[in-house]
From TrEMBL:
<dbReference type="GO" id="GO:0003677">
    <property type="term" value="F:DNA binding"/>
</dbReference>
<protein>
    <submittedName>
        <fullName>Transition state regulatory protein AbrB</fullName>
    </submittedName>
</protein>
<dbReference type="InterPro" id="IPR007159">
    <property type="entry name" value="SpoVT-AbrB_dom"/>
</dbReference>
<dbReference type="Pfam" id="PF04014">
    <property type="entry name" value="MazE_antitoxin"/>
</dbReference>
<keyword id="KW-0238">DNA-binding</keyword>
<feature type="domain" description="SpoVT-AbrB">
    <location>
        <begin position="1"/>
        <end position="41"/>
    </location>
</feature>
<dbReference type="InterPro" id="IPR037914">
    <property type="entry name" value="SpoVT-AbrB_sf"/>
</dbReference>
Length: 76
């Protein structure tokens, strides 16, 4: 750790985790353990992180996919 509190993550670990320059990390304290991880993707509509699929290169949960489909059927 440097004098500004910055921590260096070794390149080999960054490669395994798929972390690149400018990527965000979630940081949390779990008792006396500092945990860092790459944030999981969230639904572009509701923000949930469960049951995601990709629609036009964006993460979308299946509940929102169903809602969009239902709304499309209503509009016809």
């Amino acid at each position: 750790m440097d004098h500004l509190g910055r921590v260096v993550i070794p390149a080999s670990m960054r490669r395994v985790l798929g972390i690149g320059d400018g990527d965000e990390l979630e940081v949390r304290l779990d008792g006396e353990v500092l945990r860092m991880r790459k944030p999981r993707e969230a639904c572009a509509f509701c923000g949930t992180r469960e049951d995601l699929t990709e629609v036009l290169e964006h993460p979308v949960c299946w509940s929102c996919v169903a809602a969009v489909r239902a709304r499309g059927r209503e509009g016809r």
